[in-house]
Amino acid sequence: MKTHTLSTPGADLVYDVRGPLPAADGRPPLLMIGQPMDASGFAALAARFPERTVVTYDPRGLGRSARKDGRTDHTPETQADDLHTLIEALGAGPVEMFASSGGAVTALALVARHPGDVTVLVAHEPPLITLTPDGPAAVRARAALRDTYEKRGWGAGMAAFVAMTSWEGEFTEAYFAQPEADPAAFGMPTEDDGSRDDPLLSDRSWAISDHRPDADAIGRAATRVVIAVGEESRAVQTGRTSDATAELLGQRVTVFPSHHGGFLDGEFGYPGKPDEFARRLREVLDGAA
Fold this sequence. Notes:
Layout lengths: L1 E6 L3 E8 L11 E4 L9 H5 L6 E4 L8 E2 L8 H15 L4 E6 L1 H12 L4 E7 L10 H18 L1 H12 L7 H4 L29 H4 L5 H6 L3 E7 L6 H12 L5 E3 L17 H12 L4
Parallel strand pairs: 3-4, 3-6, 6-7, 7-8, 8-9
Antiparallel strand pairs: 1-2, 2-4, 2-5
């Protein structure tokens, strides 16, 4: 693996390349992206594609990619333009892409804004909360999570995030009537370290979850777009947002093994099924499923 830094006016983008460019097998590079997950989250999945040239990167303001634009918010349009710049810098033509969570939102914006950059996109569980039938309630739940984080810190905010993302079905009054989640019950710190800059728990990434993909532009692109969902996510928020995104694009979801982080080993404490996930991803990229 070789690590590179791409300097742009707004950020120094750090990315990793596993394998040669152009790829030895004649296929496009396989670019894996997340949000707010950085490149470290794709080590297990990339290792399961030894025959491919795999590129991972840290989005601006996350991981190793330092911002120079003076901003702290994360928007899919800015991130998409960063990806466009990165793909051009690779010099290997359009890429194949696996994009997860907020990265899937960025990838959909990339296809709409730069339709020649991606040959096939597997967009895994994009958290586009306003597309679901209970969008206003989902926005209310997101605001309550942010408020908990602002009042009580990271541990309480993360406990609230787990409670929100594990809730099955629409956000009803029964959800809002629950007592606040106890961070200790999830093994999270109860003390407040004073920080309030977490991109997942603050409002810095609301533009990601508020985004509405340009279905017409995506439909005009030559990119084969696949909306993927984990089999364990079907009833929770990211499963429902995946269904809503697929419906917006006039398709149905493609089911993958495991959950929202189904491609992870146990390095982050909630292992998925990376072997099964990689096999399914390979099938989908190859057009066999």
